[in-house]
Amino acid sequence: AGERARFAALAAELSELQELLAAAGTHGLLVVLQGRDAAGKDGTLRAVAGALNPVGTRVASFKVPTADELAHDFLWRVHRQVPGRGEVVFFNRSHYEDVLVVRVHDLVPETLWKRRYDHINAFESLLADSGILVVKFLLHISKDEQEKRLLDREAEPRKAWKLNPGDWRERGLWERYTAAYEDAVGRCAAPHAPWYVVPADDKDERDVAVAEALVETLRPHRRDWEKALEAVGTRQKAALAEMRART
To answer: What backbone phi and psi angles, to 5 degrees, belong to 137?
Structure first.
C-alpha cells in the first residue's frame, strides 16, 4: 500500500510537469525502456505512461527491422520517432537493440557494432542540444523471477498471447546479454542522457523508481516553464486589449 500511495503522488506530479512541458514547448522528453524478456516493459508503460495525458504522449516500439529499415543506417528508423518539443515519447526497446541483440546473435561484425556506441552517444547529444530530455531505464530482472514470469504466461490463458518460444532461447544466452548490457550502460551513460538500472522483480517498486526518476528529471525545469507560460499569457492579454481598443 505504501508503494502504491508513493506512486500515486509521483504520478500526479509527473502529470502536472508534463502539462507544463507541453504548454511551454521548449523541451521534449524521451524515455527509453530496455530489459530482458518479461522484465516488465509493458507493465511500466501501463503504469507510468498511463498516468500522463494521452494528448502529447505516445509509445514507439522497435521490433525486428523491416527490409526498408535495414537498407538505411541503424538510427534512421529511430530518429523519426523521437519527440518534438512539448511531446513525451516512450521507446519500448530502442536503438540499443543494435548493440544488444545484434551483438549477442552476431548479426553484424564486431567491428561494426562496436562503432555504434559512438554513434549512439553523438545521437543522444544531438537530441539534448535540441531541447530533448533523454532518460534511459534498464529494467533489471533476476533469472529466477524471469523464469517464474515465463511459466506464469504458460499457465495463464489471458497471458497466452505473450508466449514466445524465443524467450526461452534468449534466456539461454543470459551471460552474453549481461555483458552486452553492461557495455551499453557503461559506454553510453552521460549527464544529458543518464541510465537508471531499476530492480524490476517487484512491480510496484519498479514503477515508483521510474516515476521518481522522471519527476526528478523534469522538476528542475518547472520554474522556467512557468515563466515561459507567464510571458505567453502577458502577450495574449496585451493582444486582446489591443483588439478591444480597436473595436
So the answer is: -120, 130
211 near 135, Cβ under 8 Å? no
The CA distance from 30 to 6, in Å, is 23
Would you mind telling me the total number of residues written for the chain in this entry? 247
Q: How many CA atoms does the CB half-sphere of 42 hold within 13 Å?
A: 4
Which residue ranges of the chain lie beneath pLDDT 70?
1, 157-163
pLDDT tens track for 87-137? 999 999 999 999 999 999 999 999 999 999 999 999 999 999 999 999 999
pTM as predicted: 0.92
Distance of CA 32 to the CA centre of its chain: 2
Residue 89 CA to residue 27 CA, distance in Å, equals: 12
Contact 5, 109 (CB under 8 A): no
Neighbours of 150 (CB within 10 A): 18
- Calculate the alpha carbon distances from 215 to 3, 133, 146, 195, 211 in Å: 16, 12, 28, 15, 6
Distance of CA 12 to the CA centre of its chain: 19
Rounded CA-CA distance 39/139 in Å is 6
H or E, element range at 198: strand 195-199
DSSP 18: H
Please provide the distance, in angstroms rounded to a whole number, between the alpha carbons at the two ends of the chain: 59
Burial of 98 (0-12, 13-18, 19+ CB in 10 A): buried
